[in-house]
Design a protein that fits this description.
heterodimer, A: 113 residues, 11 strands, B: 109 residues, 6-stranded mixed sheet, 5-stranded antiparallel sheet
């Protein structure tokens, strides 16, 4: 079955540590997105990519980095520069054009310890 | 600035008690509106897309409607399994969706 796989489901980060969240899709979608979800704030866009080897900053890109070396993969690195990384991270993909809507992964919950 | 506002923030219903959730938006040139359902600890699941004012779509106990300024998600005779957070989103420009903060629905038996 086609879909989006995020891993790990839970991730713990120590202060000053970089961590990478994985996102893989087999839907043959061109566009991929990373959102952060905090209680009461809805989903906020971190980064998005419409084609391989190209990506754009979203509304809250500071302290995060991404790469898009393959159409199927869009990993997100949470760097030590992100001062409040504890959140639920969601990866999504869509056909070209957001008016087709997104398919979401199951999310990664990141906690700073 | 493009904004999506959902109300109420939370809604508690008794099983069988029908109600509506609201999603209002301020975007220049609506190109569609999306409703998603999200269960705790999971990713949002697609429910409906509405593209033009006057359009309606139904799925089981849910019906979504769209006007030029807002959308409603009507829930008829809800059951406890309808408990979830309901999100709406619009694509104001480019290839991105802007989401509302969601309505947390709890249905008690």
């Amino acid at each position: 079955d086609g879909g989006i796989t995020q891993s790990p489901k839970y991730l713990f980060r120590k202060e000053g540590q970089n961590v990478t969240l994985s996102c893989e899709q087999n839907l043959n979608h061109d566009a991929m997105y990373w959102y952060r979800q905090d209680p009461g704030q809805g989903l906020r866009l971190i980064y998005y990519s419409q084609i391989v080897n190209d990506f754009q900053k979203g509304d809250i890109a500071e302290g995060y980095s991404v790469s898009r070396e393959k159409k199927e993969s869009f990993p997100l690195t949470v760097t030590s520069a992100q001062k409040n990384p504890t959140a639920f991270y969601l990866c999504a993909s869509s056909m070209a054009g957001a008016f087709y809507g997104y398919t979401f992964g199951s999310g990664t919950r990141l906690t700073v310890v | 600035e493009d904004q999506v506002t959902q109300s109420p923030e939370a809604l508690r219903l008794q099983e069988g008690e029908s109600s509506s959730l609201n999603c209002s938006y301020t975007v220049s040139g609506l190109r569609g509106l999306f409703w998603y359902r999200q269960d705790p600890g999971k990713g949002p699941e697609f429910l409906f897309t509405l593209y033009s004012a006057g359009e309606e779509k139904e799925k089981e106990r849910l019906k979504a409607t769209l006007t030029k300024k807002e959308s409603f998600l009507h829930i008829t005779a809800p059951k406890p399994e309808d408990s979830a957070t309901y999100l709406c989103a619009v694509p104001p420009y480019g290839n991105k969706l802007v989401f509302g903060a969601g309505t947390i629905l709890r249905v008690k038996s």
